[in-house]
Amino acid sequence: MERLPGLRDFYPEPLPHTDVWSADARQYIFDKWRTTAKRYGFREYDGPPLEPLELFTTKSGAEIVGQLYNFEDKGGRQISLRPEMTPTLARMVAAHERNYKKPIKWFAIPQLFRYEKQQKGRLREHFQFNADLIGETDPAADAELIALVIDTLRAFGLTHEDFVIRLSSRNAWQDFYQAGGGELAHEYAFFQIIDKLERASPEESETKLAALGFSVAAVNAFIEAGKPTAELESILNNLAARGLREFIKIDYQVIRGLAYYTGVVFEAFDRKGEFRAIAGGGRYNNLVKLISGGKVDLAALGFGMGDVVLLELLKARGLMPKFDSPMDVFVVIEDEALRNISLKMVHDLRAANFAVEYPLTPAKADKQLKRAQELKVRFTVRAENDAYVRIRNAKTRDEVVTGIAGVANHLS
Ligand code: HAM
Fold it and tell me: Which residues of 260-287 are buried (b: 16+ CB within 10 A; e: fewer)?
């Protein structure tokens, strides 16, 4: 049986094949995401991987809707696997926001599914670190969130020479669009043309822009001027106070594809421009209201950082550690008459928080020692009789004999 295209198998290292992913690397990434989010005061939440199709169809925008993994369930409901977390978060917050003090600072690490063409940095499934801040309109919140993106990437050993945050604003584009006589009804279509500018041919962009009364030249002049709005200026000052200014570049080329963004938007990219976006996010001040049918109105902003591009970048910069099995102790059972006593010792050592391995079935002593070596354990322990054990330090090769009750103490 073959795996579905664009989905991944995660194996423990050392990896058996180049076509599979490392479960150890995944855990390493999740741990860093969690610890950084907690340092910033974000609490973890989660939602269901399946949602009503409707949650995504009107809220996310055409591109994501075209990529939904959707189906009808046995109860005749229209269902979709989640392609992103933000609509779920908006639904959850709207349902119970009164129980939480504002601003709400939450994070999650959902697995997301998008039926898109598999390519470098893009799969049909990925894990995405989401951090969102709800109930604060001040740009200080935007700066706090961007600082979290920066510190998350720094936690992996990346520096300002490796990545940059391209900071932009839909408000700035909105002003540009309205000043140029653009109609409100076509504003999102205009945003989508800007979003595709880097990837589309100039002719294609020119035709589409002309239909809305704009030109590539005017759009490019606006991007090149790159004059920060007062709001962006305030974010830049906030980040400069933290010593993080060098990580930011004002870049109006970034506008984000998703429909719900309302203000500041940003994306993290590797400096050399070799990879796709590492992270992206922004303000979505109307989404909670839209999803709650007008019942709850809360400003919000957040970002998503995927594991796929991040891992590609970390590997390219030589920043991924090697992963071994983290075993502390191997209990050797040479004399089967001592198996029960040894089992009790294995159990007690595990209860004392040691990672312990032992032979499940009778085996020759040299075979057991070879296994202990492969596992790179720090100690081997062997019952000599029903009262005493011999402990050997694998590195120094020092040996001691101690009473069976004192093994855990001795090891620690
Ligand atoms: P997004 O830009 O669609 O934003 O995704 C965020 C990040 O997830 C991307 O920069 C990329 O690293 C990763 N990503 C997205 N799609 C794929 C894929 N098919 N394969 C691998 N990685 C992928 C959002 O999803 C927003 N909901 C983020 C957000 C949270 N905005 C506010 N709060």
Answer: bbbbbbbbbbbeeeebbbbbbbbbbbbb
For residue range 217-263, list pLDDT tens digits in order. 999 999 999 999 999 999 999 999 999 999 999 999 999 989 999 99
Question: How many Å lie between the centroid of ligand 1 and the Cα of residue 74?
Answer: 30
In angstroms, rounded to a whole number, what is the distance separating the alpha carbons of residues 150 and 165?
Answer: 8
Q: Which helix (H) or strand (E) holds 64?
A: helix 62-65
On the question of pLDDT at 213 being above 90, the answer is yes
- Mean pLDDT (whole number) for 311-319: 97
Domains for the chain: give ranges and CATH numbers.
10-316 (3.30.930.10), 329-411 (3.40.50.800)
Verify whether ligand 1 is closer than 6 Å to residue 88 (CB atom).
no
Ligand 1 atom with minimal separation from the 267 CA: 10
CA dist., res. 224 & res. 189, Å (int): 22
* Ligand 1 site, residue 110, Cβ cutoff 6 A: no
Looking at residue 60, its pLDDT comes to: 79
**Nearest-10 crossing angle of helices 202-211, 187-196:** 170
Burial 120-139 (b: 16+ CB within 10 A, else e): ebebbbbbbbbbbbbbbeeb
Structural contact between residues 348 and 410, judged by C-beta atoms closer than 8 angstroms: no
Quick one: tokens of 172?
A: 């700035």
**Which of 26, 42, 84 most suits a substitution to test ligand 1, by most atoms within 8 Å of the C-beta?**
84
